[in-house]
Amino acid sequence: MAWFFLLAAGFLEIVWAFAMKESQGFTRLTPTLIMLGAMVASFGLLSLSMRSLPLGTSYMIWTGIGAVGAFVVGIWFLGETVTAQRLIAALLIVAGIVTMKLA
Predict the structure, then answer these.
(1) Residue-wise pLDDT tens digits, 58-94
(2) What is the predicted pLDDT for the residue at 46?
(3) What's the gap between Cα 97 and its chain centre?
(4) Do the Cβ atoms of 11 and 69 come closer than 8 Å?
(5) How far is CA 28 from the centre of its chain?
(6) Which of 14, 34, 36, 45 is the Cys-Cys partner for 5 at CB 3.0 to 4.6 Å?
(7) Residues with Cβ < 8 Å from 68, sequence gap 6 or more?
(8) Are 90 and 68 in contact (CB under 8 A)?
(9) Where are the alpha helices (DSSP H) in 23-83?
(10) What whole-number distance in Å separates Cα of residue 5 and Cα of residue 52?
């Protein structure tokens, strides 16, 4: 279950990052509330995963999912630019996540 909790926590990190962007500096109520709910749930699930997974593994995978997920959401939904340099950076994060999982 720890890995399920960790993956769900990572997904919710993407949700709260996107909602934070959509809140326009916390001036829009609905995205702000979504951000707060997703943030609390993400931290809660991360803490549950840390009951049995090592701190370094949990935290790295959680932040990696959030970083790469936010990168993809930014491209897909917000029209952010895609460059070779940004793609390489995202792929390196994914490689680090995979390597950490295998270790």
Answers:
(1) 999 999 999 999 999 999 999 999 999 999 999 999 9
(2) 98
(3) 12
(4) yes
(5) 22
(6) 45
(7) 90, 93, 94, 97
(8) yes
(9) 29-49, 55-78
(10) 11
pLDDT band for position 102 (50/70/90)?
confident
- Report residue 20 as tokens: 């934070």
Quote the CA–CA distance of 44 and 101 in Å, as a whole number.
21
Is residue 92 within 8 A of residue 37, CB to CB? The reply is no
Q: What three-state secondary structure class fits 9?
A: helix
Instruction: Tell me the per-residue pLDDT of 28-58, one tens digit each, with 9 for 90 and over.
Output: 999 999 999 999 999 999 999 999 999 999 9
Contact between residue 18 and residue 72 where contact means Cβ atoms under 8 Å apart: no
Cβ pair 14, 70 in contact under 8 A? yes
